[in-house]
Each structure stands twice: as structure tokens, then as C-alpha cells.
Amino acid sequence: FAAAKAAPKRIVFAEGEDERVLRAAQTGIDEGIVFPVLVGRTDVIESRVKRLGLRLTLGKDCEGVNVLDDPRYKEYSQEYYMLARRKGINRPQALEEMRTRPTLIGAMLLRRGDVDGMLCGTFGNYSDHLRYVRTVIGMRDGVHTLAAMQMIMLPGRQLFICDTHANRDPSAEEVAEMTMLAVEQVQRFGMEPSVALLSHSSFGSSDALSAVKMREALEIILRRMPGL
Question: Using H for helix, E for strand and C for coil, what is the string for 68-99?
Fold first, then answer.
């Protein structure tokens, strides 16, 4: 929180009309940790802000991206078409999705550098959101595995769990890569992680395929990060 207050970032909230999102944006503004960019129908956002008794003001302490007529859509849809045309998306579809898929809008804002980060997925199918993240934002150079990580804040410690959503049956190489990426992210929080690779066995007590996979992943990790 201290780091966020020292340098508040522009964060796009894809479901900007949702009550939970609006309340979260208001909290972020009150705590001085974020400049929210809300995707939605701006008249609906303003109406719900008033109905909920919130104090945020579009154009002042936050920004709205109108899904109905944002002037950037034509340019953004052309770029999205170039990214997704090999996946069956044509130009009319690209423009239609830009006007109807808030996660796509948020992903394009992030890709173009208009925001620093994105929050999405408060409703809808996880894989639908992930599709736009994968296509538009993608992975940095040298990374081959896209994985999800959750943080659980407990009274005396924090737990990070990876990967429960994106990869159904990852290989040992993929498990190793996502583990090393998770370590990197945990270290960004100023913590030194202790890592456990989970299967149904403990320390080689089983030769089931999932247990063998985790042992192979551990060997890969220790070769690449011997100090872990």
C-alpha cells in the first residue's frame, strides 16, 4: 500500500458499471493508491455513482471509457484485427468486439500504454477473459507459459497459489517455468518465497504420473535457480 501511494498507477477496471467495481474504485481513490479508468456506458456509471452515494467524478479523480462511442475504437479494432486475424477474426468482427467486450477494451488500453494495469473478470467465463489477455497483451520475450496466481492474505502470512485456472495439464517444463515466474512476482512484494510443488504424494512416496512430473519440475527449477 505504501508503494502504491508513492506512485499511484492508472488501472483500467473493465466492468466499470458494476457496483462492486465502483465501490472498489472509490476506495482506491480515497486511499490514494490508484487512478481508476472505468470501462462502460459513462451515463450509466454516473447514474450508479449517484445512486450508490459515491463521490468519484469522471474526468476529475477517475476517467471513463465509453463503450458506445470512444474515438479510439476504430484504430484499436484495426490493431486487434492484425493480432487476431489468424484466429478467425475479420475486420467487422474486430470492430464489433471492441464495442461489446470490456476486457478487450481494457487489454487494448494496456497494450497501447494508456493504462498501467487492468482488473477484469468480475463476471463471465474465465477462459473468455483469458483469450483477450493472451491475444492482445501476450507474454514477454522468453516466456512460454501463461499462468494464474492468487494471493491469500492471512493474519500472519501471505500465501501465493499458482496455477489453478489457466493450464489443465501442464508439462514438467511448464510447471517449472510458472514456478520461477511466481517466485519473481512474490519477490516484487519484498518477500523471499518458500516454494512447494504439490501433488498427492510427499517427497517421492508415489510414482504416479503427477508426482513424477513434480519431481522433474523440481530438478529443472534447481538447475536454473540453484539458490532457491
Answer: CCCCCHHHHHHHHHHHHHHHCCCHHHHHHHHH
CB 29 within 8 A of CB 62: yes
Spell out a b/e string for 18-40, using b for 16 or more CB atoms within 10 Å of the CB, else e. Answer: beebbebbbebbeeebbbbbbbb
Please give the chain's pLDDT, 228 residues, in tens. Answer: 888 999 999 999 999 999 999 999 999 999 999 999 999 999 999 999 999 999 999 999 999 999 988 888 889 999 999 999 999 999 999 999 998 999 999 999 999 999 999 999 998 898 899 999 999 999 999 999 999 999 999 998 889 999 988 898 999 999 999 999 999 999 988 889 999 998 877 777 888 898 999 999 999 999 998 877
Residue 85 has which C-alpha cell? 486475424
Instruction: Say if strands 63-66 and 117-119 run parallel, antiparallel, or are unpaired.
Output: unpaired
Q: Are 17 and 41 in contact (CB under 8 A)?
A: yes
At 145 the three-state DSSP class reads coil
